[in-house]
Design goal:
- Helix 2 packs across helix 11 and helix 3 packs across helix 8.
- The chain folds into 2 domains: about 180 residues, no CATH class; about 170 residues, no CATH class.
- With about 400 residues, it is of the alpha+beta class.
- It has 13 helices and 11 strands.
């Protein structure tokens, strides 16, 4: 019997029991569909996370205050200072694009007609270089604003929309924060949200000298941001920052009262976690393929028993054991592949639906689709081989006698 003839005979045999064949393939459909949908959803979520981290800037370095252990084992938070930022700016200029110290305070900003709870960010002019931020209108802070402790500010897009909903360009307008009146000198272009969900556009930027002396009355720094010109300088820059601050704070290695990290580290951790989740989801969903394969084996064994007399007749008229094995093996492979194709189609549709609901990119890996198709065929071969082998080993005379 030729290969195509065997396929035609196998299809005809499966169509005799359409309902049973459909239910047998259902396990493969569910398993393949779940693998495609879940792995694609995890891939889309990872792409969305990468986009947000790119928006923040993977070349960004964060220097935070750390705990300092005093005598008696009491941990004390050691704040960063303007002097720390100045030391970094002086000694790491060749590695870094800039150093921007930041002090943050939540406040209510108001105009004559609108109020809005937002975050006031005191910072250095280097902030624009460090974060690669662009302005839609006006200008950013400069050294003169810093020296004069000028009452000026730059609005994020969210703040601009809340305080000046009818004025796209509010440069020159006044904004009051507590008793401090600030003149708007710029409006930032929209930046979107960070991976943790915070709105980068819901901020008002002022000179750090202004916020320290006129608004907060405290010169401690919340965080220092910096960035490297190229990613290959990231690790040397972190080492140099650590060395400079260790000397400035007069602490030994291993006893640092500050923390130096990068967005790239967060990106690598997030990618690793997403990869692990993809693997776990794929593994769990693959169990359905195994269950579907067991269903195929069970039905094929029943089919062999039901068609014992047919097998005897085929062998009596010249069919070889290999022909019988091939016929039943093709039947199990067809069951698995049809289920696999339907499952892949449903899985892609599910991946698209999940991506649209969650708002992340549609991600369907062609390699995963190919693997799912090949695995479904492999399930048909693996679980169909034993029933096919059993059918091929039937004795023709005993098979003809079977009722």
């Amino acid at each position: 019997m030729g290969f195509f003839s065997a396929i035609r005979v196998a299809l005809a045999a499966l169509l005799v029991h359409k309902g049973r064949s459909a239910l047998t393939s259902l396990g493969i459909v569910i398993g393949t569909g779940a693998v495609i949908a879940m792995v694609s959803a995890a891939g889309g979520a990872r792409q969305k996370l990468d986009e947000r981290l790119d928006n923040v800037g993977k070349n960004l370095i964060l220097i935070r205050p750390g705990s300092h252990t005093q005598q008696g084992g009491i941990a004390d938070l050691k704040p960063l200072t303007n002097e720390d930022a100045a030391a970094l700016r002086k000694h790491t200029g060749t590695l870094l694009q800039g150093v921007a110290e930041i002090q943050v305070t939540p406040r209510v900003a108001s105009t004559r007609t609108h109020n809005w709870n937002t975050v006031i960010v005191g910072t250095h002019p280097d902030m624009q270089k460090v974060r690669s931020w662009s302005l839609e209108y006006g200008r950013f802070l400069d050294e003169d604003d810093l020296k004069k402790r000028a009452n000026v500010c730059i609005l994020g897009q969210t703040v601009r929309q809340k305080l000046f909903p009818d004025t796209p360009n509010p440069v020159g307008q006044l904004v009051r924060v507590d008793r401090l009146q600030l003149r708007v000198i710029g409006v930032m272009q929209p930046k979107g949200r960070i991976p943790t969900g915070g709105d980068q556009d819901d901020q008002i930027f002022v000179p750090i000298s202004t916020i320290q002396r006129k608004l907060v009355g405290d010169e401690n720094i919340s965080i220092i941001l910096s960035s490297v010109r190229s990613m290959d300088r990231l690790e040397p820059a972190k080492e140099e920052i650590t060395r400079v601050l260790r000397e400035k704070h007069r602490v030994k290695k291993g006893h640092e009262d500050f923390d130096v990290s990068s967005v790239q580290e967060m990106s690598e951790l997030a990618s690793y976690m997403a990869l692990v989740m993809q693997f776990l989801i794929g593994t769990i969903a693959s169990i359905s393929l195994v269950v579907g394969g067991i269903g195929i084996m069970n039905i094929m064994l029943v089919s062999v028993t039901e068609r014992t007399r047919e097998i005897g007749i085929r062998m009596a008229v010249g069919a070889t054991p290999f022909d019988v094995l091939t016929q039943f093996l093709i039947e199990s492979i067809v069951l698995a592949l049809v289920g696999g194709i339907i499952g892949i189609s449903l899985g892609i549709a599910g991946a698209v639906g999940l991506a649209m609901m969650a708002g992340w990119p549609i991600f369907v890996d062609p390699n995963m689709v190919l693997i799912a198709f090949l695995v479904s065929g492999g399930v048909g071969v693996f679980f169909g081989y034993y029933p096919a082998l059993k059918a091929s080993r039937l004795d023709p005379i005993e098979a003809l006698r079977y009722e």
